[in-house]
UniProtKB/TrEMBL annotation:
Signal peptide: none annotated. InterPro entries: D-isomer_2-hydroxyacid_DH (IPR050223), D-isomer_DH_NAD-bd (IPR006140), NAD(P)-bd_dom_sf (IPR036291), Xyl_isomerase-like_sf (IPR036237), Xyl_isomerase-like_TIM-brl (IPR013022). This is TIM barrel protein. Keywords: NAD, Oxidoreductase. It holds the Pfam family AP_endonuc_2. One of its GO terms (molecular function) is hydroxypyruvate reductase [NAD(P)H] activity. One of its GO terms (cellular component) is cytosol. Residues 21-157 form the Xylose isomerase-like TIM barrel domain. Residues 396-543 form the D-isomer specific 2-hydroxyacid dehydrogenase NAD-binding domain.
Length: 583
């Protein structure tokens, strides 16, 4: 559990004074309020506060807004300030009606507005959480749960704080009821009438609260709020009690480094919420052009998270900007373009190639089975010549029983395809000089040469690693051997094919089919015969992770980070030796 201070505790103090207090109290970070210190829409102030916190080594835990999802309120300025702060979470209020006073229409409107806010914030990797407060829908656990369930958005969470007007037993029941959504607790000691007390006087109560939280499996932030007399001395004393209640944990500092625009689709709101439980990860995407600007953030970063668009850094750049770095988590496939300088410096590299392999294997397996039925040219014949011609074409196809299927390359993707083909009555032949006989036996596959595969297989699917040694390896001598009605599928890389040789073989026998998700160049040049040949099916490189599927890669990197930080064996680490043969 990360510890912090909410700036509304000291509305009369400056930003610098609050930062100094948080440092003296040895807290992990600060929740900045939108009422005084970081007004909604004032992005210059927000950016200045962000820079000061980074320089002080403090995490910005959240942005405490006063957005209540009311008809006259605009969420856009709140979101703008939150983005400028680089926060992982925005606190909002759950309307201004209690559960027993809100009308059905007002409730539906409130839920819809909060859903819009949660969705808008999710586009920038920022969570939204409800203030747990009297006079709103979160006055009771029943009201809070009703609203959270009605909004039903994966990016919506809630805070919790003790209500002095209800019993201790009811407070514990509240924690249990809202635990699936719990992200933060406001820590203070009040009694009825909102009378403030030193936290030391309620150590027993807070021990029970935190035990209930631990039993739920959650690790919410513990943010201090409201101290006796609004004094710094009371605050520092309360901080000492908080540290005793929740012993300080090691904070693992991380950063995003990526030139691409898809990072926050790869690391979606669910994944980011879980990452926040194990690392300090500001919602600031550093690029190769802004490394100097964010040098203080990168200096302390032990872990980098990235995806497509990871810049290729030199060893000198790594030494200058990332002196504390221990590992890079790459939420995409191949790391060939950037990994070596990191590995040479002893920095570990993890890739989501296993996650990216899944949709490719699913796609390739589906195409293989459809190819066995002659599906692709059948559709073309039906469209241009009618049903009879389509049927006559499929009469020359064997179907998916007792045929041979060739798999080129038995790496991660090739093996996944072979595993999926084990449930079909087909024989699989594999070309891969590096795979062991034991692996092939476990996959019910036989080793074969390229010549044998192209000569004997009904369908051939390419999954060979993209390396300099594999460029142009599939030539006319191979394609000319294929059966009259065979299908070649390429979801690997186009550069492995001598395309004029493949085109020649396809022109010589129009019943041969090529399904090409990749070409070289990509897309084919306008004058390429591939664009007009009826026995060529082109798709725009869709086999790999796309749309919702890209979030699987972020989840894989979350799991790798969790394993690394807890000393468990990792599954997707890349070594220098592996770079010699992997894509």
């Amino acid at each position: 559990m990360k510890t912090g201070l909410t700036s509304v505790t000291f509305r009369q103090k400056s930003v610098d004074e609050i930062i100094s207090l948080a440092q003296k109290a040895h807290l992990d970070g600060i929740e900045w309020g939108g009422d005084v210190h970081v007004p909604a829409g004032d992005t210059d102030t927000a950016a200045s506060v962000r820079e000061k916190c980074i320089a002080a080594g403090l995490e910005i835990l959240s942005y405490g807004s006063y957005y209540k999802a009311l008809p006259d309120q605009d969420f856009a300025p709140v979101l703008a300030s939150a983005r400028a702060l680089g926060v992982p979470m925005i606190r909002i209020w759950a309307g201004n009606c209690t559960p027993d006073s809100i009308s059905e229409d007002a409730f539906r409107t409130l839920a819809a507005d909060i859903r819009c806010a949660a969705e808008s914030a999710s586009q920038f990797g920022i969570a939204v959480a409800l203030e747990y407060h009297r006079g709103t829908m979160t006055q009771t656990k029943e009201g809070a749960v009703r609203l959270l369930q009605a909004v039903d958005h994966p990016n919506l969470y809630t805070y919790w704080q003790p209500n002095p007007d209800v019993s201790m037993e009811e407070r514990l029941r509240e924690i249990q009821a809202i635990s699936p959504w719990l992200r933060c607790c406001h820590v203070f000691a009040w009694t009825a009438g909102n009378e403030r007390h030193p936290l030391a006087e309620q150590t027993g109560e807070w021990s029970q609260y935190l035990e209930a939280v631990r039993q739920s499996g959650k690790k919410p932030n513990l943010v201090m709020e409201f101290v006796c007399g609004d004094s710094a001395e009371s605050f520092l004393q309360d901080a000492e009690i908080l540290h005793k209640l929740s012993p300080k944990e090691t904070i693992h500092r991380a950063a995003f480094l990526c030139n691409g625009a898809r990072l926050l689709r790869v690391y979606d709101s669910r994944t980011l919420s879980e990452l926040d439980q194990i690392v300090s990860l500001p919602r600031i995407v550093v690029t190769s052009d802004t490394m100097e600007e964010y040098a203080p953030l990168l200096k302390n970063a032990e872990y980098l998270f990235s995806t497509w668009g990871m810049p290729a850094l030199t060893g000198e750049q790594i030494e200058k900007y990332l002196p504390s770095l221990k590992a890079v988590f790459y939420g995409a496939g191949s790391v060939q373009a950037f990994a070596r300088p990191f590995l040479e410096k002893g920095i570990r590299v993890f890739s989501a190639w296993g996650a990216n392999a899944i949709p490719v294997a699913e796609y390739a397996t589906a195409q293989i089975i459809l190819a066995g039925k002659g599906f692709f040219q059948c559709v073309d014949h039906y469209r241009h010549e009618g049903r009879k011609a389509a049927r006559e074409f499929t009469d020359h196809q064997p179907g998916n029983y007792n045929i041979r299927i060739g798999i080129l390359g038995a790496g991660m993707i090739g093996r996944m395809v072979l595993e999926r083909l084990m449930c079909y009555d087909v024989e699989t032949l594999v070309y891969d000089p590096f795979v062991s006989d034991a692996v092939l036996e476990s996959l019910h596959a036989k080793r074969a040469s390229l010549t044998d595969i192209f000569r004997e297989c009904q369908v051939i699917s390419n999954h060979i690693a993209n390396l300099p040694s594999t460029v142009g390896m599939l030539k006319y001598e191979h394609f000319s051997l294929t059966k009259k009605n065979a299908t070649f599928i390429n979801t690997g890389r186009g550069a492995q094919i001598v395309e004029e040789d493949m085109i020649r073989a396809l022109q010589e026998e129009p019943e041969r089919t090529a399904i090409l998700d990749v070409t070289f160049p990509e897309p084919p040049v306008p004058e390429s015969p591939l664009n007009t040949m009826r026995n060529v099916i082109l798709t725009p490189h869709i086999a790999g992770s796309m749309n919702n599927e890209v979030a699987r890669m972020g989840k894989y990197m979350l799991e790798e980070a969790r394993k690394l930080l807890t000393g468990q064996p990792c599954k997707y680490e890349v070594t220098e030796k592996m770079l010699e043969t992997m894509a």
